[in-house]
Amino acid sequence: MQRSCGVLYPISSLPSPYGIGSFSEEAREFIRFLKQAGQSAWQILPIGPTVFGDSPYASISAFAINPYFIDLDQLKAEGLLSEGELQERFWGSDPESVDYGALYQNRYLVLKIAADRFFERGMGQQEDYQSFCRKEQYWLEDYALFMAIKQLEQGKSWQEWDLPFKTRNKDALEQVEEEQKELISFIFFQQFEAEKMWNSLHEYAGEHGIDIIGDMPFYVSLDSADAWAHPDVFAMKKDRTPMEVAGCAPDAFSSTGQLWGNPVYDWKKPDHAMSWWMLRMKRSMEFYDVTRIDHFHGFSEYYAIPYGEKTAEHGTLRKGPGMSFFRKLKEECPLIRLIAEDLGNVTEENTKLLNDTGIPGMKILEYAFTSWNSIYLPYRYDHHCVVYTGTHDNPPVRAWIEELNDGSRDFLRRYLNSMNSDYGQLTWDLIREAYRSTADLCIIPIQDYLVKGREAQMNVPGTSGNSWRWRVLPGFLSDDLAGSMHDLSALYGRLGSSEK
What we know:
Layout: E1 4-8, H1 25-36, E2 41-43, H2 72-77, H3 83-87, H4 100-120, H5 127-135, H6 137-152, H7 163-166, H8 170-179, H9 181-207, E3 211-216, H10 225-229, E4 244-248, E5 258-263, H11 270-287, E6 290-293, E7 301-306, E8 316-319, H12 323-332, E9 338-340, H13 348-357, E10 361-364, E11 385-388, H14 397-403, H15 406-416, H16 423-436, E12 441-445, H17 446-449, H18 479-491
């Protein structure tokens, strides 16, 4: 990696008059802002379809795109929607918070209007749509069937479906394909428009010298098209129930551990899991310039809990595929660029795998100021890493500073050589420290540039209901902010290659 910098800013948090950020002109405006600010990268959260809980890390597909991110103004420009059809819908009352209930009630109704016009006008026969359906057939048909049956089954998990659907009985699936042609075509349309718009936005970023850093969850949800369509990839019984699910072993923070519930991969039959993963990685290469893999330690070892357990107390630590996975990846995707989320659970095995792969790991400044021995203190960094002030799971820096105990806050000030009593100024001092560090890549969450507090935390781990909602108000992309960011980038040798 060359020395550079970027911003962590979820698509969903972009300003929008339609309740949630999308692949819109606001996204292009942000790309232009990044270039003006001397940045080289835009890091986003996973863009897969979300379900109850709204977490992008609990998607129902590892290959599909969230239809909420379709740019409605672009559909209007294509003549598929009218201004009145957009304005008559309720998209939420708070421009700084996503109202997922309002989205669910209104977004699909508007998209269905657009889809009906698309097919009525014969646009489904056009080569770009037909080409998309052929190219993406390997995942698209299963995903559309999964979504169609899920609707027929009143939204129930596929684990609770009628047996012919659950076990993918050929006759039952063919009957759904025949009887639900309109619904399946609607799902195809959503993915066609979403991918077309994402590819256009990605190309626009490249034209402005901005790399897109995507985010890939390690596990998939049990209630996902992937687990339903590819049970041989996972540790499943013949009746399609999991043998084991993922979690975290009991530790000092939790006496019963963490029960995540994701199906674990069946690495005893590596051909199935490996082939599926290679398809996933190739799609990631199409979507992003760089991919951050969440829970990278899962390739080294993973904690498996018998299905049906109420806690994680009786799990087993098992070996992951290790370097065999990355040797295969190098054969299949020699140009792929990765970042490893290697936080927590620092073991000799995990560290060795990271070093052997040569993939850069992550350093979080909010974890650094607990002791002089912290591995996250900048003076300990090797250059081959990515430094963040915090991630989507952390409070914004200002809130973090406010909540530090006096000793840790004093340590922070001493380390930064800053006696600022204003927490906003101290936030910028920590941002400066990230830029100044030896880490090749520096990524700052947009919340920290805006000096936001707890209200802007994207996710509060262990809670539900209020995460993944925060949004940015229009008008924050000021020349003053771009100038401050550009000054830091220039001062610490992180300017984009187009400016050097």
